[in-house]
Amino acid sequence: MDRIRYYFAPMEGITTWVYRSIHASVFGPLDKYFIPFVEPHEKRDFKTRELKEILPEHNEGIYAVPQILTNQAEGFIRLAHVLKEMGYEEVNLNLGCPSKTVVSKHKGAGFLALTEELDRFLDNIYSGTDMKISVKTRIGKDDPEVFGKLLDIYNQYPLEELIVHPRLQTDYYKHAPRPEAYREAREKSRHPLCYNGDLFTGSRIRAFCKAFPAEDRLMIGRGLLVNPGLVKGVCTKDRFREFHDRLLEGYLGRDLGEVNVLCKMKELWTYQIHLFSDAKPYEKKLRKVQKLSEYRQIVATLLRERDLCPPL
Ligand SMILES: Cc1cc2nc3c(=O)[nH]c(=O)nc-3n(C[C@H](O)[C@H](O)[C@H](O)COP(=O)(O)O)c2cc1C
Question: Which ligand 1 atom is the nearest neighbour of the CA of 96?
C-alpha cells in the first residue's frame, strides 16, 4: 500500500488548522489536507474564522487544499482568485455536504439534483479560473441512477481529481458506501479518482485495495480522527499523548476560552475513545466533564490505565 497517496478529509470544526498542523508534525504529513469549506460572501472575502483556517502561515509545511461550497460561479471564481493570490495552487468544490440547511439551498450534495445548472456552473468555473479544481462528490441526492449522468458531466471538464464518497445525500452517513457506484466511476471517469468512505481501520483499507487494486489515492476522515496514525506514523501511547497534549495547548493558546476548548476536545474524544480498550467509563466521564482541570485528570488516568486497542 506504499504507492497510495493519503488525504485527510475536511471535517468542519474538527480538522482545524491547529489540528492539521499538529497532526502533520506528530505523525508526518499526509499527501494532502483538505480545509473544511469556506463560502463566498457579498462584502468580504472571508469570515474571521474562515480566514484563520486559510492563512498560508497556518498551513505551512503541508499541502493544503481549500474547499469552496457554493452554487454561484461568480462567487467561486472570485474566491478562487483570492486563494490563488494567497499562494494556493488548488481548490476543491464541495458537492457532498448532506446537511439539510445546505441542501435546501441547492448547495453541496443538493446541487447534484440540478444537473443542468451544475453543468453550466462547472463550465463557468473551469473557464473562469486557471487554478487546479478538484471535485468532492456524493453519487446523487436521492437517486443512485443519476450518478452516470454526473460522471458524464464531470468528464467534460478538466478536473484535477474526482473524489467520490459513494453515498447519496439522503444516506447521510447511515447507509453503507455503495461499492458498485465507485466501480462505475472507475469504469467511466476519465479523471484521476480518489475513494472516500468508511475506511476506519487498516484491515478495511487492505480489503478495499484488494477489491480495487488500481487505486492510488484514498481520502480518510473519521478513521484518522480515531487513530491519527492509521496510515502514517504509527500511533503509540506516547505519540498519542504528545498529539493530544499539543492539541490541547494549541487550542488553549488561541484564546478560544476554556469552555470552547473543552467543547472541541470533547467532540474529538467521541472518535478517539475508540482507540482505547475497555474505555466505556471514560467515555461517559469525558462527555460530562465541565472543568479543564478535571478533564486533564480524566485523560491522564485513561492514558495510565488503559491500553490502545490492537491495530485492526
Ligand atoms: C463532523 C464532520 C464534518 C465534515 N465537514 C466536511 C466539510 O467541511 N467538507 C466536506 O467535503 N466534507 C465534510 N465532511 C465529510 C468528510 O470529509 C468525509 O467525506 C466523510 O466523513 C466520509 O469519510 P470517512 O468515512 O473517512 O469519515 C464532514 C464529516 C464530518 C463527520
Answer: 11
Q: Say if 231 falls within a structural domain.
A: no
Q: What is the mean pLDDT of residues 221-230?
A: 98
Q: Which three cell numbers stand for residue 91?
A: 481548490
- CA separation for the pair 153, 70 (Å, rounded): 18
Q: In residues, how long is the chain?
A: 312
pLDDT tens profile 67-86 = 999 999 999 999 999 999 99
Give the C-alpha separation, 249 to 208, whole Å. Answer: 37
Structural domain for 94, as ranges: 5-226
Ligand 1 proximal residues by C-beta, below 6 Å = 9-12, 14, 36-37, 67, 94, 96-97, 136, 165, 196-199, 220-223
| Three-state SS at 176 | coil
What is d(CA 233, CA 187) in angstroms, rounded to the nearest whole number?
33
Task: Answer with the one of 166, 196, 226 that is the final residue of a domain.
Answer: 226
Handedness of CA 302, 306, 310, 312 (dihedral sign): negative
Question: Are 208 and 232 contacting, i.e. CB atoms less than 8 angstroms apart?
Answer: no
From 195, 226, 257, give the residue that closes a domain. 226
Q: Is 263 exposed, middle or buried (0-12, 13-18, 19+ CB in 10 A)?
A: middle
Largest CA distance in the chain: 58
